[in-house]
Amino acid sequence: MASDDVPLSPLTWLGGDRRLARRVGRPVRNFLRIEAAGGILLLIATITALVWANSPWSDSYHDLLETHITIHVGDLIHLDESVLHWINDALMAIFFFVVGLEIKRELVVGELRDPRAAALPAIAAIGGMVVPAGLYIAFNSSGAGFDGWGIPMATDIAFAVGVVSLLGNRVPSAMKVFLLTLAIVDDIGAIAVIAIFYTDDFSSGWFLTGIAGIMLVVLMRIAKIWWIPAYVVVGTFVWLAIFESGIHATIAGVILGLITPAIPLKPESKEEDLDDMVRLAVRGDASAPVVRRANFELKEQVSVVERLEDTLHPFSSYVIIPIFALANAGVMLSGDTISDAITSPVTLGVVFGLVIGKLVGISLFTWLAVKSGVASLPRSSAWIDVFGLAAIAGIGFTVSLFITGLAFDDPLIADEARIGILAASAIAAVVGTLILLRSKVVLEVEVDDPIPTGS
Predict the structure, then answer these.
(1) Are the beta carbons of 399 and 129 closer than 8 angstroms?
(2) Domain range for residue 361?
(3) 57 with 190, same domain?
């Protein structure tokens, strides 16, 4: 039985026979298990932000985001940040922690483990970062807009996967893996850009304190300390130290994700002893220590990375990212702002970078990798699939908006970039979808109606 097919326990509210559970709870759960669910919620949050920010109640939108929340602990800690900054600096650290977990899993047991299998999407991702950044710089070689060159380098996994999943079997499964792997390598590049180029007021003391916290996590692993609350406390301290160091605090989430174990522990019990403990626990004859031991041994059949991903991914995809979109996508859309954006080099750089840069960069670097013999196209795929997925990779939304907040202090320039991101992501989704729909037509012609060879 696949893990996704495991039925809910009837002992829980969701698995029970109550009317609300049957008619609301389980349908919502089934919706959230759909691949496109994250993208759908992200789209709803984006539309909500745009409507709210351009409604008669727009002041309440901005007042909410500018409300300050203060945490004060003696003379050691004093954090006074707006709701917007708490979302972008704290909640997004959890999102990037999940990204770090995904990268770690891919490096250890996933597609990135095999260098040859990873070569094609990795090379494609490099093209999908270099060419968009180059196109953006072509429009913004000088002036206040130059700092936004990292904006069109990003690919939004949730939106991209959502669009592709809606296309069903029109996209070969191997090419879906290609897109996911490409997006993960893209995330690695975006994280490096954020850490290296978007760091201000660097504090070496706090940075070294953060490094000490990370080393403490490593030592705790070596000492076989598996109590999760202890890691939560140390991880929070690492986040605070990185935040105070001037490096963006989300990097702490990535680092903690990367040092999380991706290989299950080998149980110390013999298999028959574990069977006996589980049998006692299920019958209800076991004591609390036996149940606790059996629970630990069973959990350790699955890696910490996989368990944390399973726990945090829904929270990240269905709560954090929609909240982030709600807080960052609320751009005022008046006739003047749109007309200014159309002629703005920042907006043009973002649009051309995401729409043209991603399509050309990913396709070109994929072609070079295949023609040079470094890699080959996945089986059952064609070049039109590459072009379609390269176009869809131009949906830069989440990380692009995130980098915009880091790149620009001027709200007018930031709004021009956001308008470019929204427009480019919509165009990329439409263009990519049209190309991939054409891929299905080509496939049907090749299979069902072969072109005569003339013999």
Answers:
(1) no
(2) 34-68+114-198+329-445
(3) yes
pLDDT at 2 (0 to 100): 47
Q: Where are the alpha helices (DSSP H) in 7-70?
A: 19-20, 26-32, 37-53, 58-66
Q: Which long-range contacts (CB under 8 A, 24 or more apart) does 383-387 make?
A: 384/435, 384/436, 384/438, 384/439, 384/442, 385/171, 385/172, 385/175, 385/436, 385/439, 386/124, 386/175, 386/362, 387/359, 387/363, 387/435
In a domain, 319, yes or no: no
Q: Which residues of the chain have pLDDT under 50?
A: 1-2, 441-455
Looking at this protein, which amino acid is placed at residue 204? S
CB 100 within 8 A of CB 258: yes
Helix (H) or strand (E) holding 81: strand 77-82
* Distance separating alpha carbons of residues 98 and 415, to the nearest angstrom: 28
Are 48 and 138 found together in one domain?
Answer: yes
What is the domain-level CATH number for residue 437? 1.20.1530.10
Q: Note the pLDDT of residue 451.
A: 41
pLDDT of residue 345: 94
Sign of the Cα pseudo-torsion (416, 417, 418, 423, in order): positive
**pLDDT tens by residue, 362-419:** 999 999 999 988 888 887 778 899 999 999 999 988 888 888 888 888 888 999 999 9
Structural domains in the chain (count): 2
pTM for the structure as a whole: 0.76
In a domain, 257, yes or no: no
Same domain, 132 and 273: no
